[in-house]
Amino acid sequence: MKRLAAAACAAALLGFAPLPASASDAIEIEITDIDPVHTPGEPLSVEVTVTNPGPAREAVSLDLTAQTTVPLYRSSVTSWISDDTVTSSMLTLDRRSIDLPTGRTTIDIDVPREVLTWGNTSVSWGPRGVQAALSFDEATIVDRTFLTTEPSFDQEPMSFTALVPLTIANDELVQVPTTSERYGQSIEALSAGDLGPDEVLPDPVTSAVRDAAGRVTADIDDLTSPGITLALDSAFAALDTVDLTQESLSAFTDGDGHELIMLPALDADLSAWAGTGEDLFFLSHVAQAEQSRQVLSGRNIPARSDVLYTPGSVTASVAELGIAHGSNLLVVPRSDVPAVEEPNWTPSAHALLDDVGTEAVLVDDELSALLAGESELTELDRRQTLLALTAVHYRERPNDHRPLVLSLPRGDDLAVTVSDVNAMLDVLDDTSWLAGVTLSDIEELPFDPFAREDLSSGRSDTSALTPALIDSLTTAGDAIVAIGDLTSHPLLFEDAASTTYRIAGSWSWTAGPGELSNRVGSVQALSGSLTSALKVQSSSTINLISQASEFPVHITSTLPLPIEVEVDVVSEDRRLQFEVVTTTLQPNTTTTIGIPVKAVGSGNVRTQVDIVGPDGSVLGTGAEIDIRVRADWENVGTAILAGLVLLVLIIGVIRSARRGTRTQPLSETDIQELED
After folding, report:
1. Could you give the CA distance from residue 622 to residue 93 in angstroms, rounded to a whole number?
2. How far apart are the first and last CA of the chain?
3. Contact between 132 and 371 (Cβ < 8 Å)
4. Tens digits of residue pLDDT in 388-398
5. Within 10 Å of residue 279's Cβ, how many Cβ atoms?
6. Are strands 329-333 and 307-308 parallel, antiparallel or unpaired?
7. Which of the listed ranges 25-34, 42-51, 130-139, 268-277 does the model predict with the highest average pLDDT?
8. pLDDT tens across 452-485, in order?
9. Confidence check: pLDDT of 23 > 90
C-alpha cells in the first residue's frame, strides 16, 4: 500500500526519527510488483517505485525486508497491511544505496533464493509481511504488502466459490420511460394511426433489458476462472431475451467449477417486499426466476432458482418470504449471524440456521470486500492480502475442510471490473491451498457445528421503495386505471401505469433513490392531469318550479379520447330526488346533460354534482350547484290560469246577454197573417 509518510510506524519499527512533514509529504514509495505466490527454492522478484517531486537526492538507503514468521491469525494480516503492526521480527532481503532523481524511479530487486531462509514446512509456509523502506535525512518512509510462500508438499485444497451477480443497472433501467412519457408516446402513436383499440407500444422494460444484454454477455464471457457461481438477473434469460444470452450462458455453464443461479427479474428488492407486503411490485419478478430456469433447461443450460441471494439485509422476514416462494438455500453475510461462542478460527461457510430451519452459506465479508475493491488498497495489495488471508484460513485448521464463500456487490456498487475479478479468482484457484468449486458443491459439505445468532427481526432501511412511496404510487396508479377503464382504449392507461409498477421493485433504484421518487411523481402528475381533464362547470342558481323536471349540467372533458361516465347529483336536502345519468363525453368538448329530478317540496337546495365511475368512485372535479325549488308553483299557476280563463268566459257570456237586441211581441193580426 502506498505510503506518503509512515512516521510513527517507521520510528517504532526501525528506530528512525519521523520525517518532517514538508519532506515526507513530497516523496512516495510503493511496491508495484511482486510474485503473487512464491514457490520454495525459487528467487523472488520485487519492483519498487519511488516518486520524488522535489530536488534530486543522492545515496538514499533502500531496504527490502520480510517478516521472519507467519501470522497465526487473520487479524495479524489486517494489522500489518493497515500499519497497525509497528513491531515485528524482520529478515533483510535486500539493502542498497540509490540515487533519486526528480520524478519517478523504478527499482527492480531480484532476491536470490539463498536469502529466503524461512524453510518450507507445515509450520513455515504461508504469508509474510514485506516492507520496502526508504531512509534519508535520518527518517524513513515505507510501503507494505504480503508475500505468500506455498508448500512444496501436497495438501488437500479447501473449496471456495465467488458469487458474481449480473443484474440490470440503474443507468440501464432509467431508459424505461416514465408513466407520463409512456402515456404521451401512446397518445401520439394512437393519433398517428399506429395503434389499434387493443394494442400498446412495444414493452419498454423488455427493450431496456435487451439493450443491456450486450454488457451482460460481455461480462459472462469474462468469467472463465473456476470457482464462480453466476447469479443472473432472470430477466436476461426470459423467453423474449434468452436469444441474446443463450450462447454465453451455455459456454459459462460448460466451464469447470461454474454454476448458474437465477435471481428474481430486475433483481427485485426482497427486503422492500418483506417490509411492505405489496405483492404487486415483486411477486411476478420472483416467479420469473423459475420461469427462466425452465427456459434455460429447455436449451440444455442447467440453472438453479432456489437460492435466496438478495442484495439487501437478510432479516428473518426476508428469509421467511424467500422460503415461502421456493428458496431452499440462503446466502447470508457471516457478520449477520455470528456464532454464539466465536472460535479463534474461521468456521465453515455451510451452516444451518435454526431460527428459520434452513441451510445457508455464509459470506466472508472481509475477503469479499477485498475481491470487490472496497478498500483504499492498491490492486496489488488487495491481491496479496487476499492470498495471505486465505492461506491463514487454511493454516488455522488444515485438516478441517472449511469452505469459503465470497460475494460481490451488485454492479452499481462494484468498484472493479468483472474481468479484474476473474483475474483475482484465477490467482486464488492457482494456489495449492484453494480450489474453485460451485455453490452446490459447498452445499454438499458438512455443516458448521456452531450455534448461531438468530437473523435480525428488524426491517431493512436500505430499500428505495418505502411504504410511503408505495402508497403514493398505488393511489395515483389506481386513479389512472380507473379513468382509462371508461375510455375507448383502456389498455393504453394500464400500460402507462404498469411501466412504473413493473420496475419500482428493482434493487437498482438504491443506486439513485431520487430517480424512483421522480418516477412516482410522474405517476402522480399523470393522475392529476387526467383528473383535472374532467370537470363539472359551475353554474348560477337554477330555478326549479315543477315536481318533475330536468336541470342542465355542463361537463368539460379535455381528454384525447371519448369516455363514458356517470353523472351523480346528491344533496342532503330530501326535497330533491335525482337520477344517475350515464353519458359519453367526447374529446376536448363541453357537453350539456339533463339530470332528471323530482321535487317534493319547495326551498333553496345546494347540490354536489360529481363525475363518477361504475363503482361510484369520483372522477375529475365536481361542483356545487344551487337550485331554487318551487315545486307547487306549477299547479298554482295552472289553477290561477284556469280560473282566469273561466272568469273571462263567464264575463263574456254575461256581457253578450246584456248587449243582445230584444224582439217585439206579435199581435193577433200578425199571427193570423203568418198562418195565412
Report:
1. 88
2. 162
3. no
4. 999 999 999 99
5. 10
6. parallel
7. 42-51
8. 999 988 766 677 888 889 999 999 999 999 999 9
9. no
What does the pLDDT read at residue 24?
46
DSSP 367-425: HHHHHTT-SSS-HHHHHHHHHHHHHHHHHHSTTS---EEEEPPPGGG-SS-HHHHHHHH
Distances (CA, A) of 353 to 304, 312, 328, 361: 21, 18, 12, 10
* Cβ–Cβ under 8 Å, residues 68 and 118: yes
| DSSP letter, residue 458 | S
Residue 446 pLDDT greater than 90, yes or no? yes
Going by C-beta distance under 8 Å and a sequence separation of 6 or more, which residues neighbour residue 649? none
Which residues, 6 or more positions from 297, have their beta carbon under 8 angstroms from its beta carbon? Answer: 303
Phi, psi for residue 359 in degrees, rounded to 5: -70, 155
CA distance 524 to 479: 9
Residue 659 pLDDT > 80, yes or no? no
**pLDDT exceeds cutoff 70 at 176:** yes
For residue 283, pLDDT beyond 60: yes
Burial (CB count within 10 angstroms: exposed 0-12, middle 13-18, buried 19+), residue 543: exposed
pLDDT at 21 over 60: no
The answer to whether the CB of 479 falls within 8 A of the CB of 531 is yes
Residue 608: count of CB within 10 angstroms of its CB: 15
Q: What CA–CA distances, in Å, run from 251 to 152, 223, 558?
A: 34, 10, 56
Query: What is the rounded distance in angstroms from the CA atom of residue 410 to the CA atom of residue 414?
Result: 6
Q: Is the pLDDT of residue 96 over 70?
A: yes
Q: Which long-range contacts (CB under 8 A, 24 or more apart) does 525-531 make?
A: 525/180, 526/179, 526/180, 526/183, 526/476, 526/480, 526/496, 527/475, 527/476, 527/477, 527/479, 527/480, 528/476, 529/180, 530/479, 530/480, 530/483, 530/493, 530/559, 531/479, 531/483, 531/619, 531/620, 531/621
Evaluate if residue 615 carries a pLDDT over 90: no
What's the chain's Rg over C-alpha atoms?
A: 43
Q: Compute the distance between CA of residue 518 and CA of residue 484 in angstroms, rounded to an integer.
A: 22
C-alpha cell at 510: 438504491
Strand partners, 396: none
Three-state secondary structure call for residue 15: coil
What is the residue type of 153?
Answer: F
At 671 the pLDDT is 58
Highest mean pLDDT among 175-189, 337-351, 507-521, 546-560: 175-189
Q: Is 591 exposed, middle or buried (0-12, 13-18, 19+ CB in 10 A)?
A: middle
Find where cell 517478516 sits. Answer: 67
